Fold each of these.
Amino acid sequence: MTESFSLTPEAAGPKLDVARKSLELLRTVPELADRYTGHDQPRTLGDLAALPPMMKDDLNTALAHLEPQAQHGATWLFQSGGSTGAPKVGYAPTGFYMAGVHAHWQPLDRDDVFVNAWGAGRMWGAHFLAAGLADLSGCQIIALGSVTKDEYADWLGFFAARKVTAIGGTPSVLRLWFAHARAAGLKLPALRKVLWLGEAWQPQLDQDMAAVAPDARRWGMFGSTETWVVGTNSPDCPDDTFHTLPEQLVHVGPDGLLDFTTLNPEMLNPVLRYRTGDAGLLVDCPCGRPGRAMRVLGRRDSVVQVRGLGLHVDDIIGQVEREPGVARAQVLLTQQQGRATGVDLLLLTAPGAAPEVERIRADLLSSTFTLSTAFLHDPESFQVREVDALISNERTGKTASLVVREES
Ligand SMILES: [Zn+2]
């Protein structure tokens, strides 16, 4: 079934030696060796599809055993996988494989003044990866990182004065920048390019960009600290569709689950049919660029069980974030011994806005089967609340759509 691969057998075949090397390494990991018993070295895409997929923890287990080291320069350790406890570690060499990305995707050029607003530190990868791309582009870099609530106005003034042409960050971070600029009535007329990576694009950003920086367009990357950059898109592509790189082999498996195999001989993480939890399909991109593009449909793990019924977290978030005045939303599920005691929808409102909280709650309760059925006898257990800040994981800096809290 070669139709379900991002590369043709002719394009992938000569590079499958990298997958064979990854398999050899994985066979040396005591905890993983057994699962590869009876599997031959992949010579074809069909052989590859027959190998067992890897999950997040498998890669961490393998890396703990292998401790790979870069051939040239430093070996960087980054946060990889896991959402609680001590950081799990992924490895990358200096350069972060961005030369291969830059060969196919050049959103920045020498004339750009680029604000790198991805958080730096705490073993996060995106800031350094974006710096690697900017380095190859020869532009000016303002290595900003993350800022606190009170600092936005001053920095936005600085961006305007420096005639900043490009900014990059996760969509959540970009939302904050544009929302603050919009609330302050500040324009960034020189801004042309908005680079993003780390989360799905948020449609509200299009509206905020139109108000703050009418000439700005989005340029997206898709990837993870485990796979590094898998694909990229341009303003002419839908925001959920990415052109995959020739050194990344994407496979659409059962249930639409995507898995990733590196074909880059420099890659330190032995990424072999690695599943991120994202589902997707391979499509022709409407931008007209030939070859298969990957359309990402979101995470399959965004469905959570509430009293025996599946609650589609991303659907609810998507619906609520279209409401006027809602900047971002988050579902907080509270459980006692595994049983849902309540669902809270937390709303981060746009500066100065006042969303219709009670109406939103009533709409959701009547339109969401899971909520109306699960909370039939205690509808007050579903609440919608405005908050000053959503709940983020202090270790990873990520703000997930769903937070589960266990009550004692
Ligand atoms: Zn495209």
Amino acid sequence: MMRAMQLDRPGAPLRMVEGPIPEPGPGELLIEIAACGICRTDLHIVDGELHGPLPIVPGHEIVGRVAGTGERVGVPWLGRTCGHCPYCCTRRENLCDDPLFTGFTRDGGFASHCVVDARYCFPIPDAFGDVEAAPLLCAGLIGWRALKLAQEGVALGLYGFGAAAHIIAQVAAAEGRRVHAFTRPGDASGQAFARSLGCASAQGSDEAPPEPLDAALLFAPVGALVPAALRHVKKGGRVVCAGIHMSDIPSFPYADLWGERSILSVANLTRDDGAEFLARAAEVPVRTTTTTFPLAEANEALDLLRAGKIEGAAVLLP
Ligand SMILES: [Zn+2]
Ligand SMILES: [Zn+2]
């Protein structure tokens, strides 16, 4: 039997469902799931801030084993691309016009099993256990793509110190960058956590960093942070928005953008990002901080994430 936590309608709690184990089609694999991380995007889907087909099983940070072979694989958000649109043809499959997304437009990993397209899975480096690896599959990967968009900047701000920032702070520090973490104002334990991972400073998002930033990466879904971060970015600097959903961005004076500053977003990932990042993460080596929950407690875990009460990443165990 397969067990899954299913979203029937936005705003409703996920519901445990049982059914037959799904059959993989041509080119697909049946995955026996060992762990699945919970991403903020799952929260946006569950809360109805992102609209996809329903019912759906969320979850796109899957670590599991291929039924039959036992090979360990990771399954990310990018579930399939068309292979022939202008984006796919120019190595930008993250922008594909006709994609499938794991846990959004096809069933994901809040389950005992799932079926995936074999071409979009990654082998997981042996350096990581199942649980430790799960948050790498989205928080890590999207963070990596955001870090690449920050270019060579040495002074780096991370706004929102959750699953993604706690991973990318380690990668950035290992590259010799100075990482400045921004948490919810007054979140002393979040700031201490950031410093423990090599951040040069940690402060509330309403405070100024100790030095001007070459780039700021925004992981919090709070539009007001965009102009706030922009004010702390040097000429030529970038504000990179890494979330899939964000509250509206308030207006701000053009002078804050002047000086060839830019604001851009990160969308999805390519398979190249995945291979690159997992190798890099093993090299650093990244240590993920996780809190695990049984699959049946997915709703409780989502509540804690919504309240900002998870240090590092939440991971479900089927
Ligand atoms: Zn395409
Ligand atoms: Zn995600």
